[in-house]
Design brief:
- The chain is α/β, with parallel strands linked by helices.
- The chain has 2 domains: about 10-130, Diaminopimelate Epimerase, Chain A, domain 1, CATH 3.10.310.70; about 135-440, Metal-dependent hydrolases (TIM Barrel, Alpha-Beta Barrel), CATH 3.20.20.140.
- It is built from 19 helices and 16 strands.
- The strands form 3 sheets. A 7-stranded parallel beta sheet has the order 7-8-9-10-11-12-13. A 6-stranded mixed beta sheet has the order 1-2-3-4-6-5, with helices on both faces.
Length: about 475
């Protein structure tokens, strides 16, 4: 219920290095990528994190190995970018203390106030918007590669959690060529303000969405980013300060991206138009803002039938968990967050051990009677396999067991975990009358496995292999 397939498809074609790579490995990878490029060509890749690098990166480190090509490396969350001086120049970002942060973004700075080359949130978008766009053919090819990978793992329906017109066009193209097999809900990105903080209107592609709608592709969801991430960037919006935050720190409680009044008005308008919301909300303050916006839409429009989603939910106050059911809000959790990735120690360091006890509170939400679904956020995490998440929802440990249990009190049963991926996913896509279970009268969407996950040790579930996938009665994958 939360993937970014186009980015997943491109990842194999970019300058990537394993998550958790130390600084020498990262710089060596970038140097090798530069050797295969012409002078001035962009080098794009990732995924880095401060813990593994051993220090906060800066543009000087990249300048030493690649001075003549613009370089942009995304961090493991996708919410920060590390660039060299050439990239800043190409993007028109001045190396001056007078350079202003864009609305909803931050340029990290040195002691003199000069941008260091680490950019957070919308500041990173200024770089990404300067990278040459891919052709429609390249987009369709990358998307096809990613969707085929997902088919091999048994994913028959999905939500593309952040799309603009290039993604919409790629899905429509694959559908017209008979290559789109999965049923896809698309969430179109909407931003409240420009870089300068000026309110902007809806992007054109929202009005044009029906041009791209196909039998198995429905761009009927709007994606809004309410905050950032609770890593070293401290951009997730929290109700209480980050661990060790100093008095006067402007990021002590993170950043809310959209003013509540603006958000409430937009959600009410989109709800009335029959569109579903998906909010990026990692911190508990952002989750509360999203739920408030859903409540405002319900008050204005009544229950429209749109099942609006709050996504990620790394931290959620119990009072907000309890009220979600009464306003018809869905919690879309990110269970892969405890996959062996540097995201976990980064988040733990930022929010502290007490808050980590209820990290991604899946059980709390289920017990409160709310609708709970799950998503990977792939390729933010290194694996899109649902079998990894189904196991770790039960164990809260790395695949295979062992090591630290993260948020032990939020563990659920194996049957509950499978239900989140089947029945609940279909409910959220408003397709429970067609899919989500093996029942007479439903569409013939099903998979065949090499083992029964209910009859093996739970620590082996992540090894499950799909031998056959069928959608609408058509064999779409065979191992």
């Amino acid at each position: 219920m939360h993937v970014h397939p186009l980015y997943g498809g491109y990842q194999a074609l970019e300058c990537n290095f394993p998550q958790g790579s130390p600084l020498p490995v990262v710089l060596d990878a970038v140097k090798k990528c530069a050797a295969a490029k012409q002078k001035g060509e962009w080098i794009v890749g990732g995924q880095w994190d401060v813990t593994s690098l051993g220090r906060m990166p800066d543009r000087a480190l990249l300048d030493q190995v690649v001075p003549d090509n613009p370089v942009q490396l995304s961090d493991i969350s996708g919410h920060s970018a590390w660039v060299n001086t050439k990239a800043l120049q190409v993007a028109g970002i001045e190396l001056s203390a007078a350079t202003r942060n864009p609305a909803g973004g931050i340029f990290e700075r040195d002691a003199a106030g000069i941008p260091t080359g680490v950019l957070r949130e919308t500041a990173a978008d200024k770089i990404r918007n300067s990278i040459p766009v891919k052709t429609p053919e390249e987009n369709a090819k990358a998307l096809d590669v990613a969707l085929k990978k997902m088919l091999s793992l048994g994913i028959t329906s999905l939500t593309d959690a952040a799309m603009e017109e290039r993604e919409m066009a790629a899905y429509a193209r694959l559908a017209d060529e008979g290559l789109l097999k999965q049923r896809v809900k698309g969430c179109m990105v909407w931003r409240a303000v420009s870089d300068s903080g000026v309110a902007v209107g809806d992007p054109d592609y929202i009005a044009k969405r029906n041009l791209y709608t196909r039998e198995r592709f429905a761009p009927d969801c709007v994606k809004m980013f309410l905050d950032g991430v609770p890593t070293d960037s401290h951009t997730a919006a929290l109700l209480q300060p980050y661990e060790g935050a100093k008095s006067g720190d402007p990021r002590a409680k993170g950043l809310l991206q959209i003013p509540p009044a603006v958000l409430n008005a937009a959600v009410t308008r989109f709800d009335a138009a029959g569109l579903t919301m998906k909010f990026h909300a990692a911190g508990d303050a952002a989750v509360r803002e999203g739920l408030d916006a859903i409540a405002a839409a319900r008050k204005a429009n009544g229950f429209s039938g749109q099942l609006h989603e709050v996504a990620h939910n790394s931290l959620v106050d119990m009072s907000d968990i309890r009220r979600a059911r009464s306003i018809g809000a869905t919690f879309e959790m990110s269970p892969y967050i405890w996959f062996p990735t540097p995201l976990v120690p980064d988040n733990a360091k930022s929010v502290g051990p007490e808050r980590m006890k209820r990290w991604t509170p899946v059980k709390d939400a289920i017990d409160a009677g709310g609708l709970v679904v799950v998503g990977s956020d792939w390729p933010v995490v290194p694996d899109v396999s649902p079998w990894v998440a189904i196991e770790t929802l039960v164990t809260r440990q790395v695949p295979g067991g062992g090591g630290e249990i993260i948020g032990a009190q939020e563990r659920i049963t194996l049957k509950q975990a499978i239900g989140l991926y089947t029945v609940n996913g279909a409910r959220e896509m408003r397709a429970r009358d067609e899919e989500g279970a093996l029942e007479p009268g439903l569409l013939a969407d099903f998979i065949v496995l090499d083992r029964n996950p209910l009859k093996i040790p739970v620590t082996q579930v992540h090894e499950t292999k799909v031998t056959l996938a069928v959608i609408n009665g058509e064999v779409v994958y065979q191992r």
